[in-house]
Design goal:
306 residues, mainly alpha, globular
């Protein structure tokens, strides 16, 4: 396997060029001595941290550029072929993994390929299909309800405006921005649990409410970057910067992170915490983009396999 500059796997503890090893060790040394990690302002950023607004913007944008190199193949991790499928899949992803949704939707869309089909479906039949997703009764009501709304109010088509999408049953701003950004190419920031956790760790904002986080982060980046930014942050949260035990020692942006040291800092131990393609494991999509496969990504198994 060719070691890339952007790979968190195999490079953090290598004896090659040592570039990543040095930055991680430098960050570790700074944490032990209490000195400043290069690229940060010592106590972090955000309100009252001492980091200027200009410095915060520069650091935030540099983190995004670094993550774009680490995850050049980042994409929505829900399988879909059209806006309707993405809308339904995103609603189903609440309180479960994208993997479980991707393993469930093939049967759903095979039986109910259009809004008209799903709007007219027998709820009990849909519940049986959606049972693996959890909260299947509530989700059945949502997907049938939004399908009826699409048929009755939008001619069976998914609307491409935020104000229309959020009127649909089960659809909030997060779901709407996923659909707008990935099905219509209209920039939006997706504030899921990973996004919330990471932007606070990076001291981009101290806000805790999703809409306020969205507004605060939006001010740091050009609008054209919002959708890709969301992918980069979410992918990093799922693979390296975990909620309970972040893999700090294998993190390619450690020198830019004011929260470095919250997780495992030993490079070899940190590598064992990496997930999905960064750890050599299958991803969440059964049908991922070719760029992901070319980078060594492995498709997820179908429901019931191995």
């Amino acid at each position: 396997m060719t070691v890339r500059r952007d790979s968190a796997v195999g490079e953090q503890g290598s004896d090659g060029s040592g570039k990543k090893v040095k930055t991680v060790k430098k960050a570790a040394a700074a944490k032990k001595t209490g000195s400043r990690i290069p690229g940060t302002s010592g106590t972090g950023s955000g309100s009252g941290s001492g980091e200027s607004r200009t410095a915060l913007v520069r650091r935030a944008r540099r983190i995004n550029r670094e993550l774009a190199e680490v995850y050049p193949y980042a994409h929505p991790e829900l399988d879909f072929e059209n806006p309707f499928q993405l809308l339904v899949a995103t609603v189903l992803s609440a309180q479960t993994t994208d993997l479980r949704v991707n393993q469930t939707t093939p049967a759903l869309f095979a039986k109910y390929p259009t809004p008209e089909d799903l709007a007219a479906a027998d709820p009990q039949a849909v519940e049986e299909i959606l049972r693996p997703c959890g909260f299947f009764r509530a989700k059945t009501r949502s997907v049938i309800g939004l399908s009826k709304a699409l048929v009755e109010d939008f001619g069976g088509e998914v609307p491409g405006k935020l104000e229309d999408l959020v009127k649909l049953p089960g659809v909030g701003r997060k779901t709407a921005f996923v659909v707008l950004g990935n099905a219509f190419g209209r920039p939006g920031i997706t504030v899921d649990t990973h996004f919330q956790r990471l932007v606070r760790r990076w001291k981009w904002t101290e806000e805790t409410e999703p809409e306020k986080i969205e507004a605060a982060v939006a001010e740091l980046f050009p609008k054209k970057d919002w959708t890709d930014l969301s992918h980069h942050v979410i992918w990093h949260g799922r693979r390296i910067c975990h909620a309970r035990k972040p893999a700090c020692g294998a993190c390619p942006i450690a020198p830019l992170c004011p929260s470095y040291g919250e997780g495992e800092t030993d490079p070899e131990k940190a590598k064992k915490l990496l997930k999905y393609e960064k750890g050599g494991f299958p991803g969440q999509r059964l049908n991922p983009p070719q760029a992901y496969l070319d980078a060594g990504g492995i498709p997820a198994p179908p429901l019931g396999a191995g």
